[in-house]
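ok so for the tutorial part 2 we go from a plain amino acid sequence to predicted structure tokens. step 1 is just haveing the sequence, like this:
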Amino acid sequence: MSAKWRCQLCWGNPYTSPPPGVSRIAMSVLCDRPHPIPDEIEQMSGLGTEYGPGSGWTIRWEMIEQRPVRRWSQEARAKVRKNNLRKRMEAKFPLFAEDFIAAEIARRPSYFDGSYDIRP
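step 2 — the prediction. this is what the tokens look like for a chain of 120 residues:
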């Protein structure tokens, strides 16, 4: 699976805003490779147009990559959640951290078991 590319004619001056009534992205085209600039954008950004050189508009390329979503196992989620709780409690309450950790785990057991259902 190859990545797709998005070529955009967009407002490129970070210190100003585009003209009133115009969005920050004037045109966007989906491409298979990052060159050459698509004809539609090339025609819009040519000399003598409002999008020409020096007008504040620029051409930007973005790679669009669809990778599969990696899910954590329930055990990994539980371990990370408990470690984060331990770090927070030991930083805030070093003397009573164990008591607060036990109370929080007792209050929300399913969350600290790694469940997706995080409602109290």
